[in-house]
């Protein structure tokens, strides 16, 4: 080939081939796609107009006003819909509301329906006109010719609406209607002040709050400013409009502003948010965004996301894997957002307002957060926090202790500090213990330990919202005795076997913490319940099997049957729920039988894409042999590391990542996914790096299991405040789709003889080299 052709070839190569790698943290945003998996997704899931762990989460709704009978159903934004009803600012578990919506022409004050968008203020849109990235969202509302844009600071939502030329350009503040998981509206207010502020509140009664703390409510406050004075204004209640009115209250309450606009004129709305008061919403706005333009706030949000995503940098030639990784990381950092104000005010469990202590500069010593239940989060979120975001883990612990100090009990899930357990267990004690064993200890250890021990061993006067409502039976019998019927909520009587397993794991975690604190008596007291799984293991069938109060295994036992003794799962799935002692479980089943059974489970489950197949339902896989779309068995594929077959962990973990996880609107986290505030995304992040602890970092000296990373290189940024500050690097050699098996591990130049290393090895910084090959290898 002559020089001319060589130069031409090189030029073409440079034009059409670009290595899949980010040059800066900001570039990582191109791999995070918030629209993945938005068909049948939860209320929190699609919130691009937010910063990590923020309070302000501005996002479009397609069916956010449709109600949520069960409190957890898929509602909010669905990529299969073609009209947007408005932009809600609050998106948390059981919390949603404060909708802004622009329009032109005749004023309509009801959202309208998906089937007939013209019956309300909603507008049709095309996905081709959308931009969605962490920190920013834009869309063209076709019916009005309006470009809507969203971004945020921690507690301030920014909306920018670019209008066509119009004498009737409207912005609605639809406050008094139910949104997402928020539940029925009990009261609302919105008003226009003399200086042009739009302020108000909405009070809702979410389904789970009513279940776990009857009579309690959730309050959301806002204070907004518009960049232009309106030509007209008024209020509305439902469809009833009162022009010129400045204030209204009650269900359906709303306010509108009408402007004269020239072609492509932009109007920006800044909305300070709060869970404590309008005054604090105003304060949050003034402190965080008084002098910020929309573009400045957007730049700041994008940079913040780049920094957070950049805590873990991976390289690969496979763009799909990069997209799955950073989208998963995005979702892991999107849920469980701020609930406290810039001055440290926070909502208390009793409905009052608490105060977080301030430092000498009058800055709160920590933050408070809303949070879904911690159920299963020890297999994804808390591990990710411990590895890359320890400052958030620390804040989360301190946040949980606020609820304990205020109410006397730890709360597994909270909405404005109200109890919203959701599953009736309480793993907060385990998660706090794991923070301590992980080396995150800058919290009130004495109070935290007291709270954790109480969570494991006390049941008298325990409120239903604190979970473990059958703990008395667990401690009495050494297991939760099975009932086929009962009174009250199902958590009180229906889940005997799964609760036995869960309480045993949690007892183990707090027992390990007690051991580290030299609390020998407590350690011994917790050891017996930590082995409770043995009491309901049936040696004849080699299944976990519920027992009655006489100590007899239940009759008519069907291991595939969900909901009979098992919450959101069955005996096939829950039999492997002994994360605190997998070796004992393997011995009970028999090593060969264990490997054969688990391998066959994954072989069969692959046909259903490791979940509920392509059925769009969160519970579609509950009667399967393995269900990655829900929490109870997310650790199972990693158990081969304990049974002498690490190659099978490598095989099946990689297959789950390839087949359960997708990059499309419908196929994102399975199909009928139940992505509880970032858990499934965080699982992918950990698994794709080839690191995962079955025990959730609950051992006194946590070990982390190893598998086959899918990336060429991985760099986890060090943290000086909590650990050495040195980065930890993982390098794979000869890694491709054909070479999926590990041939050897080398940690800091020394070979590993088993697929495990200490969590401290990551926290201290160093280098893990993983040699890959075609053939399975189980001895290193």
UniProtKB/TrEMBL annotation:
Q: Name one Pfam family in it.
A: Glyco_hydro_92N
**Cofactors demanded by this protein:** Ca(2+)
Which intervals hold domain Glycosyl hydrolase family? 280-774
The GO molecular function terms of this record are: carbohydrate binding; peptide-N4-(N-acetyl-beta-glucosaminyl)asparagine amidase activity
Q: What keywords does the record list, in alphabetical order?
A: Calcium, Signal
What are the annotated GO cellular component locations?
A: cytosol
Q: Name one GO biological process term.
A: carbohydrate metabolic process
UniProt keyword DNA damage, yes or no: no
Domain of life, per lineage: Bacteria
SUPFAM superfamilies hit by this protein? Six-hairpin glycosidases
All copies of the Glycosyl hydrolase family 92 N-terminal domain together span 31-274
Q: Which residues form the signal peptide?
A: 1-22
Subunit relationships: Monomer.
Q: What is this protein called?
A: Alpha-mannosidase
Please name the source species: Pedobacter kyungheensis
